[in-house]
Amino acid sequence: MSVAALYPWLKALHVAAAIAFAGGLLALSVFLAAAAAIPGSVPGAARVMRRWDRAVTTPAMLLVWAFGLALALSGHWFGETWLQAKLAIVVVLSGLHGVQSGYLRRLAGGAAVPSWRPAPFILLGILAIAVLAVAKP
């Protein structure tokens, strides 16, 4: 099967994984903001959220990277400015996921978490990525 024949499937899988990753990233952000606002949050809820993060959000992030890199290679886009900007934003969002996962781990262990409200920045990043991917300016 040729790369051209695989392209629509790679793109569809990339978009599906991106939706799962973005949803998990936002859900985790909202959960951590609520946990910081409510003194004595229940670590049990954090453990449930952590299981979701490890079972869905983290694998989705890895799939976004894998399918995205495969698409970039097939399109020979690594020299394009729009892709470099998109990759920079994805690196930041992946880093935010790591920070949030660390906060979630601490919360599940019974520790307090600092006030955390990156949801507006996450939304802006997701919107910027969508514009860059579709418009390819």
Topology:
Elements: H1 3-37, H2 43-75, H3 81-108, H4 119-135
Helix pairs in contact: 1-2, 1-3, 1-4, 2-3, 3-4
3D structure, described in words:
The chain is mainly α. It has one domain (3-135). The chain is 82% helix and 0% strand. Helix 1 (3-37) runs antiparallel to helix 4 and helix 3 (81-108) runs antiparallel to helix 4. The longest helix has 35 residues, at 3-37. The protein is elongated and about 55 Å long. The model has no long low-confidence stretch (mean pLDDT 92).
Please provide a brief summary of the model.
The chain has 4 helices and no strands. The protein has 137 residues and is mostly helical.
Count of extended strands: 0
Mind telling me the C-alpha Rg?
17 Å
**Main beta-sheet strand count, sense and barrel state:** none
Q: Oligomeric state of the chains? A: single chain
- Portion of residues in beta strands equals under 5%
As for the number of domains, it is: 1
Q: Calculate the mean pLDDT score and round it.
A: 92
* Number of separate helices: 4
Cα shape? elongated
Distance between the termini: 30 Å
Helix content: over 70%
Structural class: mainly alpha
